[in-house]
Design a protein that fits this description.
Elements (H helix, E strand, L loop, with lengths): L6 H15 L3 E2 L2 H6 L14 E3 L4 H14 L3 E4 L16 E4 L6 E5 L4 E5 L4 H8 L4 E2 L10 H6 L7 H4 L2 H4 E8 L4 E3 L13 H5 L7 E9 L1 E2 L3 E9 L2 H14 L3 E7 L1 H11 L7 E9 L1 H17 L3 E6 L2 H12 L1 H7 L5 E4 L2 E2 L5 H13 L5 E6 L4 E8 L4 H20 L15 H8 L2 H12 L15
Parallel strand pairs: 2-4, 3-4
Antiparallel strand pairs: 1-2, 5-6, 6-10, 7-11, 8-9, 8-10, 12-14, 12-15, 13-14, 13-18, 16-19, 17-19, 18-19
C-alpha cells in the first residue's frame, strides 16, 4: 500500500487540479468527512482532497495528475457500499463521480442505454418509463450505476434478471496511467479477446475508474404480483423457496425476513405485519402466467406449513412492501439506537441454503448481540445484520467472530463470503481462504495495470 502523501505534495496537487476543476476541488473538512465512511460500520481517516469531475476527460486529467504526484486515487459513487469499498484508507484523492449523471443515449431497439457513471438507478428508471423498458438490478439503495458495476452488485431481482455482471454490455474505464479504454462494442455477443468488461465489473476501482457504462435493458412486465407468506420457522420457508426454484417457477424476487427483522420493520415503518418468518415473493409476466404461478406457489407454501398472508397486485401496495424491505438496514439499526451494523453477505448453493441458515441462526441466537436476518434467498444469498456499539471492543470482537463463522461455513458448503457487497476492507483474508492461489493471479493483474498501487489501495488484497 502506498504511504500517505506529505502535506506539501497534497497542496501542490490541489493547485494543479484546481487549474482545470476550479471549485470542484475541495479539502474542506466537512466534505472530506462525508467521504470517509459508507453505509457499513468500517471507516478510515478519509481523503486529503475530494474532486468532482464532469467528464471522462476530466477523470483522465485527475488520474494523470495523481500518478505524477504518486498520490492514491479512490473512486466514489453514492457512498452506499457496505464493506469500506470506497474508503480512502491511505489518504489521497477521492474522485466523486456523482456529477457525471448524464444519460447519454437510449437505444430501445437494441435494449441498451449508455450512461455516465454517476447516474443513479432510480433516476435511470424514471427516464426509461415511457420506453416500456427498465433496468432491473435493484440492490435496495439508490446507488450510482458506476458503483454498482464496481462492486458487482445484485439484489432483490437477481434471481430472474441476473446481477450487474450479466447486465453490463461494455464500459469506459480510465486506467492508472490516465489512458481511457472501452472494454467492448455493443454487439449482443462477442468472442473478441479477453473479456475486459467482466474484469472491471467487481474490481472495486482497484484497476481503474469506470466513467461510462452501456447497460442491458428489459421489457417492463405486463403484470406483477407480490405474495407475502408467513411460517412459524425459518427452515420450512427456505425449503419452500428451494422447491419453487427446482420447479422452475419464473419468480422475479424471493426475499426472506426472519421474525426479528419483521419486528424491526414494524417498529420502523409503523406496520403491523405478523412477526413470523416471512417471504416476499414477486412474479412478473402476462396476467395468465402470473395467476398460474401464484396458484402453484401457494400450493408449495401450504405443503411446507406456511400461510399466504396477502397478495398485492397494485403498484402502490407492492412499492410499500418493497420499501419496507429495502429499509431493513435502517430498521435493524433502530433496534439499538446509536449502534453500528456489521452486515454479512454469504451466498451458498440453493440446496445448502436451509442448512447454512439454520446453523447461522444457532450462532446468532447463542450470542448476546442483537441481530436480524434477511436474504435474497432465490439465489442462495442472505445477510445477518449484527448490531454493535462502535465504542465497545467486546461488541466488535463478537461481531467479527460471528461474521467469520458464517463466512467460513458458507465457503465450506461450496459458497462464498460475499454474494454482492464485495471484498473491500473487511473480507480480504476470507478471499484467500475462498480462492487460494487464484488471489495471486488477481494480484498479478493488479500489478500489471496499476504498478504503483495507487488505484483504491487497501481493498481486496491483504498487501498493497
Amino acid at each position: 500500500m502506498p504511504a500517505e502523501a506529505e502535506p506539501g505534495r497534497i497542496e501542490a496537487l490541489a493547485a494543479t487540479l484546481g487549474v482545470e476543476l476550479g471549485e470542484r476541488v475541495t479539502k474542506g473538512e466537512a466534505v472530506r468527512s462525508q467521504h470517509a465512511r459508507d453505509e457499513g460500520y468500517r471507516h478510515g481517516a478519509g481523503p486529503d482532497l475530494v474532486v468532482f469531475p464532469r467528464s471522462t476527460e476530466e477523470v483522465q486529467f485527475i488520474v494523470r495528475s495523481c500518478a505524477d504526484a504518486a498520490v492514491p486515487v479512490v473512486p466514489w459513487g453514492a457512498g452506499t457500499s457496505l464493506e469500506g469499498n470506497a474508503i480512502a484508507v491511505a489518504g489521497g484523492v477521492v474522485v466523486d463521480l456523482s456529477r457525471m449523471d448524464r444519460i447519454v443515449e437510449v437505444a430501445p431497439g437494441d435494449f441498451t442505454v449508455r450512461v455516465q457513471a454517476g447516474v443513479r438507478r432510480k433516476q435511470l428508471n424514471r427516464e426509461l418509463r415511457a420506453t416500456g423498458l427498465f433496468f432491473p438490478v435493484d440492490p435496495g439503495a439508490d446507488a450510482t450505476l458506476g458503483g454498482m458495476a464496481s462492486t458487482r452488485a445484485s439484489g432483490t431481482t437477481a434471481v430472474r434478471y441476473g446481477t450487474m455482471r450479466s447486465n453490463v454490455v461494455n464500459l469506459t474505464v480510465v486506467l492508472a496511467d490516465g489512458e481511457a479504454i472501452r472494454t467492448a462494442r455493443n454487439a449482443p455477443k462477442s468472442a473478441a479477446g479477453y473479456d475486459l468488461t467482466a474484469l472491471f465489473v467487481g474490481a472495486e476501482g482497484t484497476l481503474g475508474i469506470i466513467t461510462e457504462l452501456t447497460l442491458r435493458l428489459h421489457p417492463q412486465p405486463e403484470t406483477a404480483a407480490l405474495v407475502r407468506c408467513t411460517f412459524d420457522d425459518g427452515e420450512p420457508a427456505i425449503e419452500a423457496v428451494t422447491a419453487a426454484i427446482q420447479l422452475g417457477l419464473g419468480v422475479a424476487r424471493i426475499e426472506f425476513l426472519d421474525d426479528r427483522m419483521v419486528k424491526a420493520i414494524n417498529l420502523y415503518q409503523r406496520l403491523v405485519l405478523p412477526e413470523l418468518f416471512t417471504l416476499f415473493v414477486e412474479f412478473h409476466g402476462s396476467a395468465g402466467s402470473v395467476a398460474e404461478q401464484l396458484a402453484t406457489f401457494e400450493e408449495i407454501v401450504g405443503a411446507h406449513g406456511g400461510t399466504v398472508s396477502a397478495t398485492a397486485t397494485q403498484s402502490e401496495e407492492r412499492e410499500r412492501l418493497w420499501t419496507a424491505r429495502h429499509d431493513a438496514l435502517y430498521a435493524a439499526r433502530a433496534l439499538r439506537p446509536g449502534c453500528s451494523c456489521l452486515i454479512t453477505d454469504v451466498c451458498v448453493p440453493v440446496s445448502r441454503l436451509a442448512e447454512c441458515l439454520r446453523e447461522t441462526r444457532g450462532d446468532l441466537d447463542a450470542s448476546a448481540l442483537v441481530s436480524t436476518v434477511v436474504g435474497h434467498v432465490g439465489d442462495g444469498n442472505f445477510h445477518a445484520l449484527i448490531l454493535v456499539d462502535p465504542d465497545a471492543p467486546a461488541d466488535l470482537e463478537e461481531a467479527e467472530r460471528l461474521h467469520s463463522l458464517m463466512a467460513r461455513r458458507a465457503i465450506a458448503l461450496g459458497g462464498t463470503c460475499t454474494g454482492e457487497h464485495g471484498i473491500g476492507i473487511g473480507k480480504r483474508a476470507l478471499l484467500v481462504e475462498e480462492l487460494g492461489n487464484a488471489v495471486g493471479a488477481m494480484a498479478r493483474v493488479k500489478a500489471a495495470l496499476d504498478p504503483a498501487g495507487l488505484m483504491n489501495p487497501g481493498k481486496i488484497f491483504l498487501e498493497g
